[in-house]
Each structure stands twice: as structure tokens, then as C-alpha cells.
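Quick one:
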Amino acid sequence: MRSTLLLLALVAATPVLAYEPGTWYFDVHEVAPTFTGHYKGTQNNQAVDFDLVNDLGLAKTTTKVGASIEYQGPRFGLELSMDEQDYGGSNTISRNIVIGGQTYNAQALVTSTLKMTCYTGNWTIRIFKWPSFWIGLDLGAEVTAIDLNASGDNYLLGVPATAVFKSPLPMPQLGPSVGFKAFGDRLVARGHYHFLDYKGATYHHTGADVRFFPLKWLGVRAFVANETWKVPNNSVAKDLEIGLDRSGAGFGVVARF
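Output:
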């Protein structure tokens, strides 16, 4: 399904990209972000009140190989990527928490797993161009899918309980970006800042990407990124507060043609 979506998006963009010559990139990479934050209120008609680290003790357990394909031309750029990480935790909670409508009382041992998958599609318009430097505008979207499963015993009653919580986080990717190249295109770098403020909710996404090509067609990639979601109660949702932070670095191998 994921490969099909990426292929369809790429095919749809091909007629537009065909008007100008450019460079294609394909890479495989791993990224290991920390993921912290909390949910409190009501989502999908179910109560939620938990902190990913303080309550559940979640930490990264598995980083799976991600992939991206890009077109970078003199006027436009297109990026399609997918990443996936697994987190796990086991913690004796110190307060009552609620996950997907299921309450766990203080002193219960709660074991949880979280799968996070991120899909990104980004279109870059290069507004100002120089021989080795450009300034542009990113217009895209990112969907982060969170799938949390928890299990544990009610400490007071000794009753086993399981809970499932799913949270898609679709976010526009809007903001300035910059890029430069040096040493005969052996060094290629890019940075961006995406920001959204809507009904009191804010989203920030900063990132930088550096690629070095010992061979004309094959190189290595290093990148960093930080994202924050701050959704106050009664902003975009009637009764839901979300505060999340994801940040980390990644490395990969990239081919260009």
C-alpha cells in the first residue's frame, strides 16, 4: 500500500517535472528520533490522559529502514518519503491514567508499545536562485500515524486490562527553505523551517540535510529534524490537549541520477 501511494504520487508529478531537466535522488536511511509528550481530554469519544515518557516510560526500541525519492530541478523540487519507528515501555505508574477509554490506577504495572509511521510529500518552489545557492518556499504535507497498545493489571482489583489508542497527525508543511552546493556538486545541503498557527494550536518543524558524494552517482546523507505540536484544550478540538515533541538525527546512503 505504501509503495503504491508513493508510485501514484510520483506518476502524477512526472508530467510537470518533465518540462525542466533536473536531478533525481533515491535513498535508504535510518532515523532514531526521541518522542515525548502527552494527550489529555477526549478523542474519538474516548477519554485519554497519559504522558508517553513520565507515565508509560516509552523509549525507542526499533528503527526500521526508511526510503525517499526526490526530484530537484532549477525551479522546482519534489520529495516523497516514509519512515517508521517502534517504541516500547514498562512502568509502574504513579497516578491514574486513561488510554483509549481504559483507566489504569496508580501503582499498576503498564506495558506498552507504540508504532510511529511518517509519510511526507513536499513541493519546493525555488524563488531566488544563484549559481550555488537558492531560497525557496515549501508547500507540502506530512502525516504521522501513531498506534499505541497498552496492557496491565488494575492494581486495586487485579483485573487485566488492555487498551488501544490511534492518533493520525496530518500537518501541512509550509515555510521557507534554502539550499546550496559546493565542490562541483559533491556537497549538497538543504534546510527548512515549517510553521503553522491555527486556532491557538501551533506546529514547528525545523530540519537540515547534508549530502556528500565521493562518487558522482553515490553518496552518504546526514540529517537532523525537530517537530513540536502544541494543541491547547478548546482550540482545534473541543476537549483535547496535545503536546508532542519529536527530534533526532538520521543517516543514509543516497544515489543520484
